[in-house]
Automatic annotation (TrEMBL):
Family to which this protein belongs: Belongs to the peroxiredoxin family. AhpC/Prx1 subfamily.
SUPFAM superfamilies the record matches: Thioredoxin-like
A Pfam family the protein falls into: AhpC-TSA
Name of the featured protein: Peroxiredoxin
Species name: Mucilaginibacter segetis
UniProtKB keywords: Antioxidant, Oxidoreductase, Peroxidase, Redox-active center
Molecular function GO labels: peroxiredoxin activity
Length: 211
C-alpha cells in the first residue's frame, strides 16, 4: 500500500555513504527529508545532490536532517560523491542510502512500475518530529526538483504546526498568512494581536505570527 499524508514514516536500518544508520535515530526529534534518485551517475541527480549540499545551512537552521536514497551500492555512492563535489563545487554532507534490496523503496512506494520496474522515481518525503509524513512530492525521472519550493514548504509546515494559520498561494516566509476558518472573527484580535484584514468572512489575513 502506498503511504499517505499523516501516515507514520516506516523506520529502517540501512548502509549509507556515511556508515550504518537507524532512520529514526538519525532524525532524532527534528524534521527530516528523505528523497530518492533513479540511479547513481545520472546527470539530474548529480545537480540535485549538489544543490542539497549547497543548502546545508538552510536545512540546519530549520532543524531538518536530509537523506538521499538510490538502489545502488555504498561503494558506488562514495565514488559518485567525488563527481558531485567536483562538478557542483560542493561537499556532500548528508548520507546517501544504499537500497540494493529495494526494501526501503518498496516500503515508501518509490518504484512506480509504469515508469520503471527497477528504478526509483524522484519521490520526496518531509517527515515531522512525530515521525508522521507531512508532505509527499513525486517527480518523474526526467525532471529535477525545485529546492526553493521544498524549503518554502518546510517553512509553511513548521509555521502551521505551531500556529492556527494556513499559508496562501505562493506564500513565502515573512508574508501574510490566512487565519484558520475554525477561529471566530471576534476571537482573532486576542489570538493575533498584530491585526487582521477580513477580505471575506471566510478569508481573514494576518501578519505572520512568529515574525
Amino acid at each position: 500500500m502506498s503511504l499517505r499524508l499523516g501516515d507514520t514514516a516506516p523506520n529502517f536500518k540501512a548502509k549509507t555513504s556515511q556508515g550504518d544508520i537507524d532512520f529514526y535515530e538519525f532524525l532524532g526529534d527534528g524534521w527530516g527529508v528523505l528523497f530518492s534518485h533513479p540511479a547513481d551517475y545520472t546527470p539530474v541527480c548529480t545537480t540535485e545532490l549538489g544543490k542539497t549540499a549547497s543548502l546545508k545551512e538552510e536545512f540546519e537552521k530549520r532543524n531538518v536532517k536530509v537523506a538521499a536514497l538510490s538502489v545502488d551500492s555504498v561503494e558506488s555512492h562514495k565514488n559518485w560523491i567525488k563527481d558531485i563535489n567536483e562538478t557542483q563545487d560542493v561537499e556532500v554532507n548528508f548520507p546517501i542510502i544504499a537500497d540494493e534490496s529495494r526494501e526501503i523503496a518498496e516500503a515508501y512506494d518509490m518504484i512506480h512500475p509504469n515508469a520503471s520496474l527497477t528504478a526509483t522515481v524522484r519521490s520526496l518525503f518531509i517527515i515531522g518530529p512525530d515521525k508522521k509524513i507531512k508532505l509527499i512530492i513525486t517527480y518523474p525521472a526526467s525532471t529535477g526538483r525545485n529546492f526553493q519550493e521544498i524549503l518554502r514548504v518546510i517553512d509553511s509546515l513548521q509555521l502551521t504546526a505551531n500556529h492556527s494559520v494556513a499559508t496562501p498561494a505562493d506564500w513565502k516566509d515573512g508574508e501574510q498568512v490566512v487565519v484558520l476558518p475554525s477561529i471566530k472573527t471576534e476571537d482573532i484580535p486576542a489570538k493575533f494581536p498584530k491585526g487582521f484584514v477580513e477580505v471575506k468572512p471566510y478569508l481573514r489575513l494576518t501578519p505572520q505570527p512568529n515574525k
